[in-house]
Amino acid sequence: GLAGGAAITYPTVLEAAEGVVHPLAIEHVPFGNYGFNTRGFNGGVPGPTFRMKPGGTLRIDFTNNLVASNNVACPDTNGEFCESATSNLHTHGLHISSKGKEDGLTHYSDDVFADVLPGQTETYSFTIPENHMGGTHWYHPHHHHATALQAGGGAAGVLIVDDPEGYLPPEYANMSEHILFISGHNLANLADIAARAQSTILEGALNAANTANLAANVFFVNGQALPTLTLESHTWHRLRMAYAAVEQGLALQVTGDATCTLKLLAKDGIYVTDLPRDIATVMLFPGARADVAVSCTCTAYPCTGMLASNAGRRLQPGRGRGGGPGANDMVAADLLELSITQGPSTSVVALPATSVQRPCYLVDLRSAAVPDAQSKRLALNGGGRTVTVDGQGASMTYANTHANGGTMATWPALTTFPVGSVHELQVTGVGAHPLHLHVVPFQITAMPAAEYSGGFFKVGDWHDTLMITDLGGGGGGGGQVTVRQQTDKFTGKMVVHCHILEHEDEGMMGFIDISGTEGTIYADAATLDSTCYAAAFNNTGTWATPATVDANAGDAGDAANSAVSHGPTVTAAMLGAMAGLSYF
After folding, report:
1. What are phi and psi of 399, to 5 degrees?
2. What is the pLDDT of residue 7?
3. Is a pLDDT exceeding 60 seen at residue 92?
4. Sign of the CA dihedral 167, 170, 171, 173?
5. DSSP single-letter state for residue 357
6. Counting CB atoms within 10 angstroms of each CB, which of 2, 84, 540, 543 has the fewest?
7. Alpha-helix runs per DSSP H in 378-424
């Protein structure tokens, strides 16, 4: 069912449970109906959807079924793409320990420096705190120098932390839920990387697509090209979107005959503080997630809408390497057809303006006191493929990490953060490179403007992966964004990298060492927010309404019946700025 128009299907859902170990195998799997193989999990693209509860443990037996003959060593390949059959597993977005067996653990946690060789099986044990916020995350391999080919080729899947009972008001909690794993596969780029890695798999991808007269820049939703999702009118549906790609950004809107209202609920698995936020466009870049409530109506039933990225230009031959798009082009692509049927209701339930209770590791840090020594400058430098902190940090190339007898294990930290405290990073480069931090998310505390991309990005928002294409600051994405985070509970390596996977494999990665006593928490969190919870969520059956929100701001009212969405508008100038960016 890969042809356009087929009803959307959903990957198998596997629940984390005490004493349960789920098998997960990375192996060669068919790439859609294209006639060649890529790398995927458990026989397909995407892999299964994992679900877990706050305080739970997800146990996985991870088996590497990739072919050893593709595992060409880094000194023997042309450039930084190599070891393409060595793998491991990263839980993208979880607030979790980054340690592994080499650190004394019985099983690997979120240790991206682990090496699982072809033919090997390793047990992963992912345990999250009992006050972990519910949200949409994903998982993928993260072996340095092979992440683009593996994760970008299709080895990935969704990982959801369930909301505790009573966490959301019923208008939100009772929405029908649709998991949309969106993946972008630029075959020109993947074939080029595969050739340079001498990996065989995907080397012929572009030629095969051209021969079969199939698209060379492919977008799947749940592994399907342009499937159809049927939604009842006058009802809020929750779309849990995760986006995986080597490069390329998406600016999603609903076009067509259907009139749809979009409300932003969460980004990167963390609820926004102004629930529900009116938006017109969903901004996705590699690694990002967005939970969006959508409600649609028709003038005459049934009708159709298209979830499409309209921000960029249609791809032109000769763009970027091998005829593919430039690394951070916002591309134009149709992703998902929405078929709207008439529902039983003639009006839409208003979504109440809500301020959800925050776990203490996610309290608002804008008024926190940050010692001068804990405020640093972080730069994403595309040209040199480096991440630097206060100017320090070399590119993690194979030659650099292995100079003078060194290894990945002896590579030095960019800096050290004490555990249980608040840290500030003044970040440059996020106009052109998605900044991703492992272990703990970060809050935007200052930007040149209060909001960007039609209100999709606002000061105060939380992310673990951030790129703001209309930030400005020059072609290198030089506009500065200040972020803060709590180094909550976990010590060890907090990896930081550009989430353009090609750039990461080429060395645009490093780590910050979180030092101190494991389990230490930030003492002033409850002072900043007396309602925050440090243990499991306590269901009181009540929800706070933000005092600063106008009483009508959260009222969907007749918005879904109106021909004009009340959300902010993305202007032609903004779209031009997006399309005109270049990473190089």
Report:
1. -65, -40
2. 98
3. yes
4. positive
5. P
6. 540
7. 398-401
pLDDT tens by residue, 364-374:
999 999 999 99
pLDDT, average across residues 305-331: 56
Compute φ and ψ for 136, nearest 5 degrees: -100, 120
End-to-end CA distance of the chain: 38
pLDDT > 50? residue 584: no
User: CA geometry: angle at 202 spanning 197 and 203, to 5°?
Assistant: 60
Q: How far apart are CA 373 and CA 393, in angstroms?
A: 18
Integer Cα distance of 58 and 109 in angstroms:
10
Helix (H) or strand (E) holding 293: strand 289-297
Distance of CA 263 to the CA centre of its chain: 19
Positive or negative, the CA dihedral 460, 238, 252, 10 is positive
Report helix, strand and coil shares of the chain as percent, to nearest 5: 15, 35, 50
Given a contact cutoff of 8 angstroms between Cβ atoms, the answer to whether 139 and 91 are in contact is: yes
Question: Would you state the structure tokens that stand for residue 299, as one six-digit string?
Answer: 């003038």
In Å, what is the CA distance from 154 to each residue of 118, 267, 499, 561? 18, 22, 15, 38
Note whether 127 and 113 are within 8 A (CB).
no
Q: Report which of 251, 227, 94 is spatially closest to residue 159, judged by C-alpha positions.
A: 94
Polymer length of the chain = 584
Residue 59 in contact with residue 23, Cβ under 8 Å?
no
pLDDT, mean over the chain: 90
In this structure, are strands 250-256 and 282-284 parallel, antiparallel, or unpaired? antiparallel
Between the CA of residue 546 and those of 10, 25, 158, 173, 549, what are the distances in Å?
Answer: 36, 45, 31, 18, 5
Among the listed residues 280, 279, 242, 254, the one whose alpha carbon sits nearest the alpha carbon of residue 337: 254
Instruction: Provide the token pair at 235.
Output: 């009802």
> Looking up tokens 């209100």, which residue turns up?
455
pTM of the model: 0.91
